[in-house]
Amino acid sequence: MAVDHYENFPVASILLPARLRYPVEVIYAFARSADDIADEGNATTEERQAGLDSYLDKLDAIERDIPVQNALFSRLKEVIHQHNLPLQPFRDLLSAFRQDTHTPRYHTYSILLDYCRRSANPVGRLMLHLYNAATEENVRMSDAVCTALQLINFWQDVAVDWQKNRVYIPMEDLARFRVSEEMIAASTVNQAWCALMQFEIRRTRELMLSGAALPKRIPGRIGWELRFVIHGGLRILERIESAGFDVFNKRPTLGKKDWLRILWRSAAYHF
Q1: Whose CA is closest to 131, among 5, 218, 229?
Q2: Pseudo-torsion of CA 182, 188, 192, 193, nearest 10°?
Q3: What gap in Å lies between CA 42 and CA 186, rounded to an integer?
Q4: Is the pLDDT of residue 258 over 70?
């Protein structure tokens, strides 16, 4: 299994209460389909942005309680009204997807975090609202976990993203550790690359751990779901380290032995 902020969205998970499986599936369908508009196929940048603008218009229609002639958005409207969900997380997602169509590089870590704030954190915030648990502290922890998951996805997908002409490692970090884009293109794993990845992994692990107490604050099945997601992300970081930071020749993923370890760690959760 790979760590991806949508694939970690607990779609129809057996750990989800039955009453929440449908709304989660609908929210996931919105996020996944919008992401596909920004990323998949051979559409031009203008066509992708027009597709995302159409999604934004439909969200505005939901806010104004205007009928939406679209099956997905009709279901989304029902879910938003039934669970009193805020619309801003949906708009934030669309903003991030639009950014994907024209921003292949991130100069600083703070700019990258702003992207994660809109591309990853809305998922966690919507889940908290579904559970009526969107307190200020829970939101802070959820944001930390979601951003960390997004960053982990970037570090394990350096080679995949390069093929899309994207580099999510901040340019300031590449310069600091004297790693060039040519080295990424050549799949170079040397001392400079290892030092860079050690730095990114350490910072990401610290971020994840800053939100790792969240599962204990939310009772029920979602707490267990969060335990698995958090330990899954941390395990990916360990896999990158154990591979000598070579994310080029084999993308770090989780196998059966990893999941047994994650299960044990989740049962012995102590954050």
Answers
A1: 218
A2: 100
A3: 26
A4: yes
Give the integer Cα–Cα distance in Å for 146 and 154.
13
Question: Quick one: tokens of 160?
Answer: 């995949």
Q: Which ranges of the chain does DSSP label H, i.e. alpha helix?
A: 18-39, 45-63, 71-83, 88-100, 109-119, 121-130, 136-156, 158-163, 171-176, 181-185, 191-210, 214-217, 221-242, 256-267
Q: Are 112 and 168 in contact (CB under 8 A)?
A: yes
Give how far Cα 209 sits from Cα of 17, 62, 147, 229, 247, Å. Answer: 26, 37, 12, 12, 23
Structure tokens at 33: 């389909």
Residue (of 9, 1, 8) closest to 254 by Cα position: 1
Whole-angstrom distance, CA of residue 240 vs CA of residue 198: 9
Residue 56 and residue 87 in contact, taking contact as beta carbons nearer than 8 Å: no
Confidence band of 60 (pLDDT split at 50, 70, 90):
very high
- Backbone φ and ψ for 66, nearest 5 degrees, come out as -95, 135
Inter-helix orientation angle 136-156/121-130, to 10°: 140
3-state DSSP call for residue 235?
A: helix
For 107-133, the pLDDT digits (tens) are 999 999 999 999 999 999 999 999 999
Q: What are phi and psi of 118, to 5 degrees?
A: -100, -25
